[in-house]
């Protein structure tokens, strides 16, 4: 997770209005806010103040007298709050971006109050490195152009990690290995072998589907060329965007995910049926497991496509995840 965006801090200064009832002038209420140790400036009575805090970071407010605190979050979780009459401290987390409005009302003079609006940009998620022995089983469905649907379970297991490169094997319901892969520490694919050991295909550079940190609104445009030992090749150009944060129900449980869309244009293919085709794909990346737990791939081919056994829509949904 990146360092906190330049820590900003504010203080709200409200002067007592009129002559008080105790024969003296009440001290003006002041409230200061800090994050990552940055000091505050002040605002005049009745004015608003704002602060931007990176999601997952802590913010601290201090008042110069006893106050009553009120916190109103929007799309933001307040974690481990520590509250006294003169201080308010908590960590703020917002997967998709949100705000927290904090109001301090003077105990001795409720007419005096200060309000601070804290903006929390979308949370920035770091990669979760693969581990030997982890496995995920997908229920996979292949809808062909001819309307036939083929379904099967496949289990992907990380069997080794060397020099930061992970090896995965895909096994079917009979525990037969049908594919092998290598990927980097961000889980971006480097090679594919199908069937195992006979036709290795290499992505150059890597198939960059996960560009960290990931956060709602992020875009990137990777490209790669796939070259296979038996001669097949194609070039991919991708427009990727993290569309949103979503709680996704799967057979593996309800998971917090980032929904990522990939629009892929393929060229330079030497397939016997075409030289170009495209995909419009959506994957749901689990913030808990650091990997996709559902994907849907929609394929479009040139007009006149003759082989109707090709994929039209391919779907993967996690049935179980073993961290």
Short description:
The chain is an all-beta fold and 323 residues long. Helix content is 0%, strand content 58%. It has a 12-stranded antiparallel β-barrel. A 6-stranded mixed sheet has the order 3-1-2-5-8-7, with no helix packed on it. The protein has a 4-stranded mixed sheet with strand order 4-10-9-6, with no helix packed on it.
Give the overall shape, derived from the CA principal axes.
elongated
Query: How helix-rich are the residues, as a percent range?
Result: under 10%
| Beginning-to-end CA distance, first to last residue | 21 Å
Parts with pLDDT < 50 across at least 5 consecutive residues: 1-25
Description:
A twelve-stranded antiparallel β-barrel has the order 11-12-13-14-15-16-18-19-20-21-22-23. The chain has a six-stranded mixed beta sheet with strand order 3-1-2-5-8-7, with no helix packed on it. The protein contains no helices and 23 strands. It has two domains: 10-120, Immunoglobulin-like, CATH 2.60.40; 135-153 and 211-322, no CATH class. With 323 residues, the protein is mostly beta strands. The two termini are 21 Å apart. The protein has strands at 10-14, 29-34, 41-43, 49-52, 58-63, 67-74, 77-83, 87-93, 98-106, 113-120, 135-144, 149-162, 165-171, 177-183, 189-193, 200-207, 219-220, 223-228, 233-250, 253-267, 277-286, 291-300, 311-322. The relative contact order is 0.12. Residues 1-25 have low confidence and may be disordered.
Please give a handful of descriptors for the protein shown.
323 residues; mainly beta; Immunoglobulin-like; 2 domains; twelve-stranded antiparallel β-barrel; six-stranded mixed beta sheet; elongated
């Amino acid at each position: 997770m990146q360092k906190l965006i330049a820590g900003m801090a504010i203080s709200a200064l409200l002067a007592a209005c009129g002559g008080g009832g105790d024969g003296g002038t009440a001290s003006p209420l002041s409230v200061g806010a800090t994050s990552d140790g940055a000091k505050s400036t002040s605002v005049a009575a009745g004015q608003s103040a704002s602060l931007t805090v990176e999601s997952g970071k802590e913010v601290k407010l201090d008042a110069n007298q006893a106050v009553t605190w009120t916190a109103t979050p929007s799309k933001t979780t307040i974690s481990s709050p520590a509250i006294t009459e003169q201080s308010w401290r908590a960590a703020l987390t917002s997967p998709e971006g949100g705000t927290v409005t904090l109001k301090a009302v003077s105990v001795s003079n409720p007419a005096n109050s200060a309000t601070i609006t804290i903006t929390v940009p979308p949370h920035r998620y770091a990669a979760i490195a693969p581990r030997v022995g982890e496995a995920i089983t997908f229920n996979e469905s292949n809808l062909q152009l001819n309307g036939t649907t083929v379904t099967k379970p496949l289990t992907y297991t990380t069997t080794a990690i060397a020099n930061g490169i992970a090896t995965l094997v895909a096994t079917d319901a009979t525990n037969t290995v049908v594919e092998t892969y290598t990927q980097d520490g961000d889980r971006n694919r480097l090679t594919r072998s199908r069937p195992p050991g006979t036709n290795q295909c290499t992505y150059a550079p890597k198939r960059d589907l996960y560009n960290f940190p990931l956060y709602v609104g992020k875009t990137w445009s990777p490209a790669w060329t796939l070259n296979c030992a038996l001669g097949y090749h194609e070039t991919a150009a991708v427009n990727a965007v993290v569309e949103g944060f979503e709680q996704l129900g799967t057979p593996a449980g309800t998971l917090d995910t980032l929904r990522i869309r990939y629009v892929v244009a393929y060229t330079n293919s030497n397939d016997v049926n075409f030289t170009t085709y495209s995909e419009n794909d959506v994957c749901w990346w689990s913030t808990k497991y650091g990997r996709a737990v559902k994907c849907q791939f929609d394929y479009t081919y040139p007009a006149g496509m003759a082989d109707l056994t090709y994929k039209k829509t391919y779907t993967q949904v996690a049935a179980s995840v073993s961290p």
